Amino acid sequence: MRNYAHPDLADVTIEHALHALSDPVRLDIVRQLDRAGEASCAALDGGRPKSSMSHHFRVLRSAGLVHTRIAGVQHMNTLRREEVDKRFPGLLDAVLGVMG
Amino acid sequence: MRNYAHPDLADVTIEHALHALSDPVRLDIVRQLDRAGEASCAALDGGRPKSSMSHHFRVLRSAGLVHTRIAGVQHMNTLRREEVDKRFPGLLDAVLGVMG
DNA sequence: TTGATAGTTCGTATATAATCGAACTAGAGG
DNA sequence: CCTCTAGTTCGATTATATACGAACTATCAA
Predict the structure, then answer these.
(1) Do B91 and A89 touch (CB under 8 A)?
(2) For residue A68, what are the β-bridge partners?
(3) CA-CA distances (angstroms) from residue B64 to A29, A43, B53, B84?
């Protein structure tokens, strides 16, 4: 795995983005990335198996929400904030602004 | 069927709302209700079978997004705009504001 | 080169969701 | 009461997601 393909946000539908955000594990990842700025997969796993996390990161990447950069042995993830905000204005603000 | 139970928005999670909105049929219903204000189930079916539509309306109701009022033989649906806006500020604006 | 660490991929099991026909229910009107 | 219409419920099928162990890959460090 040399590096990841990240979709152009223009090719991401709102349905796709909403679906990616509708899972509690993934929403938790997104919230943590919003706070932390950048984090490895392991830092966000909450004790879940690696294969499950890998699946959720893949969904988030395919929905254009998360960017993953390979840094040595770790894969560092960030929210694609500006791009998502441009494509879906207000969506992340709304989703991240909600109280439990 | 005398009338429907509509959940208190406080009991609806953002995950639940996002999931309801992430299906293309349901998103289409929501968009049409946003424009039309109020519509019967049949007016929004786009040629789909009644049982399928009934399922999607149930999901939308259970996510607190749609209110259904029985008016004679028809069931009239509206978006629960103000309540949803209060619970998830900016969410519907973001979802409904997106171009194609 | 060996070992450890981080994460992916594969395969499979299980759960959840979508689709839709058929039978049913409720209200309106003759 | 009969019938039409609008929508629900049931049941079965199929599709899509989730979960996760096991085997694999890549990088780093000793």
Answers:
(1) no
(2) A77
(3) 25, 34, 17, 7
- Which pLDDT score, from 0 to 100, does residue B2 have? 72
Residues B84 and B60 sit within 8 Å (Cβ to Cβ): no
Residue numbers in A near B15 (CB within 8 A): 21-24, 27
Q: Which of B28, B3, B2, B16 is nearest to B64 (CA)?
A: B16
Identity of residue B44? L
Answering whether pTM is above 0.85, one says yes
- Which residues numbered 26-55 in A keep a CB inside 8 Å of some CB on B? 27
Grouping H, G, I as helix, E, B as strand and the rest as coil, residue B29 is helix
B95 touching A, CB under 8 A? yes
Q: Which two tokens stand for residue A86?
A: 């441009």
- A9-65 per-position pLDDT tens digit: 999 999 999 999 999 999 999 999 999 999 999 999 999 999 999 999 999 999 999
Place of tokens 């500006």: A82
E-assigned strand segments in B31-94:
39-40, 66-71, 74-79
